[in-house]
Every structure is written in C-alpha cells, then in structure tokens.
Amino acid sequence: MWRATILTLYPELFPGPLDASVLGRGASEGHWALEAVNIRDFSDNKYGSIDDTPAGGGAGLIMRADILANAIDSIDRAGRPIIALSPRGTPLTQAQAKALSLGPGLIALCGRFEGIDERLFEARNVEEISIGDFVLAGGEIAAMALIEACVRLLPGVLGSASSLGEESFEDGLLEYPHFTRPREFEGRAIPDVLLSGDHAKIAEWRREKAKEITRTRRPDLFKRFCESGPIRRQNDKDRER
Ligand code: SAH
C-alpha cells in the first residue's frame, strides 16, 4: 500500500480535502494511507517550541534541525523519500508525481515561519520540492497538492485508467478542449467534427487543438515537445494517420 506520512505543526488539517471523492474512496479501499505526525510532539521544552531565531539575525523563526531530525527518526521510513515542501525546491512535474506514485510512498515535511535549518537537508537526505513560483504561508497545502497528484495515479484510485493516458503533460502537451450537452450553449455550438462520429478525424482534431493550446499558452512546453526526438514525432505521425 502507498503510504504518505506528513510532518506538520497542523496535523488537524489532514486528511482534509484528501479524504474527498475518489481519493477518499481509494483510502477506504486500502489503495493508500495517510498519517500526520505533529512536529510539536518532538519539542525538547515545556513550551512546546520547535523553532528559534535565525543565526546572523533578521526577521522570523527557523524550524530547528535537531527537533525535525528526531521527528523524522521516529517514522518507519520503509524506503520512502523525505520531501520538504519549499519554494526553493525543484518545481513539481507530472513526471515526478508519476515516479513517486510507482514507489512505496513519501514523507512530506511541511515548513512554517521563515523556513528550516539548512543542516537538516543533508543530515537526513531531504529533497526539496516546490509547487510553483509563489510563496505560501506553510507547506501543508503544498503537501496536499503533491500527495493528490501522486495518489490519483495509483492503480484503482481513479475510475477509468484510460482518462489518465490522454491528460495534460502525459505526452508533453496540454489537453484538448472538452464539450458536452447541450449541443448549443448561449449561441455557441459544439465543433461539428466532434459530432461527426469519425473517430480518426476526431483524434486528429484533438491532437491539433492540444498542440495549438500548448503553443500559445505554454511556449516552454511546446518547445520541449518539438525537440523531444524522433520517437515522439513518429508516435505523433502514427496517431495522425
Ligand atoms: N522564507 C521562505 C518562505 C517561507 S514560507 C523563502 O523565502 O523561501 C513557509 C513555508 O511554506 C515553507 O517552509 C514551505 O514549507 C511552504 N511553502 C511556501 N511556498 C511554497 C511553495 N511554492 N511550494 C512548496 N512549499 C511552499
């Protein structure tokens, strides 16, 4: 079973949204499990504090390496990577979520205040992951985003496995646009090709739309897609045929 352990000062926030919908059902069916550990339980003083002022001065408080190390050491790691959520981390990608979903799970360390004493990262082999170029008040929502991205990929969690294969990022492109009934909405019709019943033409239209949307919205992704070697281009040609 895929397991997530969260180290946080706010264990009451979990499972929160991770218990809703398909993820909640996945957990009750035993596909994955979540456990939140309160960092404060590892405080070494009667005040329950786990942070201190920054060496060298400056604003804010820093989470202590020794206390976080004790919290980490209390967990049965079972081969799982320790990931600190941090705006300084490598940006989370779908490929990374996929890779993590294929492993035994993860241990997520949620920062608060100014951040974490730098020495912890090397001492406990902690990896840093960011969920985007913006600053949150704490790592909890970022950990939820990371865990949700992984868990929805686990076998048995999402209803239809085929809906995973055509998603945004799966083949380096953003997803094509979707439509459903009514056939006309406020004067806007569903594109004729989607009602044609011609599956090859529909696939071709979707592929072109996916490319167009990626090119205009995410030139960075599109550039990578175009440069991604003969195999992908050949797959693309095969699909277009
Ligand atoms: N002083 C830090 C920001 C601290 S924000 C800096 O300038 O880098 C407090 C905590 O929120 C961080 O320790 C981290 O755990 C979390 N956090 C904030 N933004 C994040 C992001 N984009 N991705 C992941 N975690 C984030």
Provide a descriptive summary of the structure in words.
By secondary structure, the chain is an alpha/beta fold. It has 2 domains: 2-151, Alpha/beta knot (3-Layer(aba) Sandwich); 168-240, Trp Operon Repressor, Chain A (Orthogonal Bundle), CATH 1.10.1270.20. Helix content is 35%, strand content 19%. The chain has helices spanning 21-28, 65-73, 94-101, 119-123, 140-151, 162-165, 199-217, 219-226, 229-240, and strands at residues 2-8, 32-38, 51-52, 62-63, 82-91, 105-110, 115-116, 126-130, 184-185, 188-189. The strands form 3 sheets. It has a 5-stranded parallel beta sheet with strand order 2-1-6-5-8. The chain is elongated, with a radius of gyration of 22 Å. The two termini are 41 Å apart. The model has no long low-confidence stretch (mean pLDDT 94).
